[in-house]
Write a structure and sequence with these properties.
By secondary structure, this protein is mainly α. The protein has one domain. Helix content is about 75%, strand content about 0%. The protein is flat and about 60 Å long. The chain starts with a helix and ends in a 7-residue tail after the last helix.
Length: about 80
């Protein structure tokens, strides 16, 4: 049975709320990472702003997660969540 328009709207709103929460958590993670980088003066070696390094490192983690998922799929194993 096809979902009603109200069910589809409710599903869309739930997806939006989950995406918003994920974006908020990711933003908080990048801010926290930038704070740690700054606290330990790790931005000094490259003369790169801490928030730029935090974005780069968060991107590295995201790409690594994709690599792990691809590896697990290749081995026929379940991808960690």
């Amino acid at each position: 049975m096809k979902p009603s328009g109200l069910e589809e709207l409710a599903d869309a709103r739930r997806r939006e709320a989950l995406n918003s929460l994920a974006e908020s958590r990711e933003s908080e993670f990048r801010r926290d990472l930038a704070t740690v980088l700054n606290r330990h003066s790790r931005e000094n070696g490259s003369d790169t702003p801490d928030f730029v390094l935090a974005q780069y490192l968060a991107g590295c983690l995201a790409v690594f997660d994709q690599a792990v998922a691809q590896r697990e799929a290749w081995h026929g194993r379940r991808t960690p969540t």
